Amino acid sequence: MAIFSGRTARSLLGLNNFMILSSSAILTGILSYFLHRGLRLTHLIYNEVIAVITLFFYLFAVVLPVLKAYRGYMLPLNLILTYLWLTSLIFSSQDYSGGRCRWNALFSRCGLKHAVQAFFIIGFCFLLFNTILEALMWANHWRSREGGAGDPEKDRPLATTTGANTAGETGGTSGAGGA
């Protein structure tokens, strides 16, 4: 389990964080273009908000795996964002898939609408993998912490004995003086 706490895990996290940042930046641009063109549907606004929130947090998260003391502390945020990105992916699929692309009154830009779906899929996959990797790092950190320095409550002996056998030896004679 040492792979989940070392250089390899932090490298994978850095790559994942960069891909999530890239996906959210591209989505922010495309969705902002749609909003700028005048149509303000609730799914579109929700998707934009999720992309912008992710962009904000992952501007900082890209740098975190470089720190040696980083042990997967963004796990709660990753869990939340994974769920939100899945919801955004579902909303964009409802709006733009199955022949509804041209019916949706958003300028009939099907290529951009499908790009939104594709980048939500890419971002969601990297967020899901990132969540799993962070969970493994977090678990490895706590597992090594518990077995590391030693807890005085856990390391103390259960009972102390002073010379006499406390288990109570029965039977058998010891020594040379039998009766």
TrEMBL record:
<feature type="region of interest" description="Disordered">
    <location>
        <begin position="147"/>
        <end position="179"/>
    </location>
</feature>
<feature type="transmembrane region" description="Helical">
    <location>
        <begin position="12"/>
        <end position="33"/>
    </location>
</feature>
<keyword id="KW-0472">Membrane</keyword>
<feature type="compositionally biased region" description="Gly residues">
    <location>
        <begin position="169"/>
        <end position="179"/>
    </location>
</feature>
<keyword id="KW-1133">Transmembrane helix</keyword>
<feature type="transmembrane region" description="Helical">
    <location>
        <begin position="114"/>
        <end position="136"/>
    </location>
</feature>
<feature type="transmembrane region" description="Helical">
    <location>
        <begin position="74"/>
        <end position="94"/>
    </location>
</feature>
<feature type="compositionally biased region" description="Basic and acidic residues">
    <location>
        <begin position="147"/>
        <end position="157"/>
    </location>
</feature>
<protein>
    <recommendedName>
        <fullName>MARVEL domain-containing protein</fullName>
    </recommendedName>
</protein>
<feature type="transmembrane region" description="Helical">
    <location>
        <begin position="45"/>
        <end position="67"/>
    </location>
</feature>
<feature type="compositionally biased region" description="Low complexity">
    <location>
        <begin position="159"/>
        <end position="168"/>
    </location>
</feature>
<keyword id="KW-0812">Transmembrane</keyword>
